[in-house]
Amino acid sequence: MTLGKYVYRLATLAIENGGWMELDRLYLQNQILSEIGVTTPVSFEKGCELEASEIIDVLVEEARKHEKIHHAKEEVELRGKLYDLLTPPPAVFNAYFSQLYDKDPERAFQYLEKISYENQTLKEKAEPKYLETQLGQLMYTKTNGTYEENIPTENAKYPRCGLCFENEGYNVNGGAPFRYIRMNLQGESFGLRLVSYPLWNEHSLFVAQAHQTLMHSRKTVDQLLQLAYLFPGHFIACDSDLLVDSLRPQHVVYQGGKDDVPLLMRKEKATFTLRGYEEVDVAILDYPLTVCRLRAKEGATLLNLGTEMMQQWRTYDLENSPAFKENGSLNHSVMMVAQKEEEMMSLYLCFLASDTPYALHLAQGLGVAAIHGSLIQEEMNELRMALENSDPFQQNPRWIDEWMQHLDNRLERGE
């Protein structure tokens, strides 16, 4: 296939994504040729039906032939520039998302997912599986990313962290195609984007534009409930504001999703009514952590009760476990999850104390484990080596391949 067909196809995909018009085709094609170092005439024509990622692989090899790139960092940056051309500019992206949202919020989310997957800011689809344990059902996801790739890092002056709006269009590590869907929550600017390596379906981030430390307040509860109202069926979760490994979350970010995470699926262990909040259904869930679920028709009622319970727990003095440490830092906090289903609003409060012997992150609190693909491969390699060194398998080496294939198949099925 000729180079012109690849370039024409990539320009077509960029136009179809809504960021460009047919009048921009020549401009787009010339931008692509310039990025890959082509200086000879090219005949642009139809005839290529490949996906964007396949075309960009071809164009990267073309750039290498023309000595436009020489090492891995340059390749990553080139990919970022090409994927950025595929992605509508922020104003256009936000306007189109808003148009779709007014018709159907789920269609708008599907558009965000489509563009994010095509421009590789969403690098893989989540395929969660479930496992029965003595403590109940656990969700786990095989991923090629790491938890740290989804949280802030304070190792650069600009962008200040991996969540900041400053990443939008900034082509470091191929980050140029990142886009945020803007929204206003109680007078504060937030942006929506998808997690690059999701742990559950439609795993999203709602990121505050201001780079500030997470500290729970009434506003936190209000913002969670507002997001749950804006995206019905999705759960919206907030990490605790405890110090973990001597650090508190350095950027306000909420995580969302549309999946049956274990915390939301557990049965009630006890139900009761609180004086002054008779319209709220209160339940303690049968869960390894202490979780209280509040459910009502009115979000304002949940806001008042949820805030009161959060503040009461923050200063609650357990025997031999003071609410504050000697250095004045918090010892008690909550993870919170909000969700709107049909006419009912729910708010889950997971009560935590920092004097527990382990650090608990949000995904773990939801009952979700991330299993890194490289760890699985390392363990499988160790198992193969152990089998090869055992007497029966040394005598029958073909058994090893049969056993390993059997284990791979079971792993894929989630057994």
TrEMBL record:
Pathway membership, UniProt: Carbohydrate metabolism; galactose metabolism
One Gene Ontology cellular component annotation held by this UniProt entry: cytoplasm
Alphabetically ordered keywords of this record: Nucleotidyltransferase, Transferase
Top EC category: transferase
Reaction it catalyzes: alpha-D-galactose 1-phosphate + UDP-alpha-D-glucose = alpha-D-glucose 1-phosphate + UDP-alpha-D-galactose
Protein EC: 2.7.7.10
MF-aspect GO terms: UDP-glucose:hexose-1-phosphate uridylyltransferase activity; UTP:galactose-1-phosphate uridylyltransferase activity
Protein name: Galactose-1-phosphate uridylyltransferase
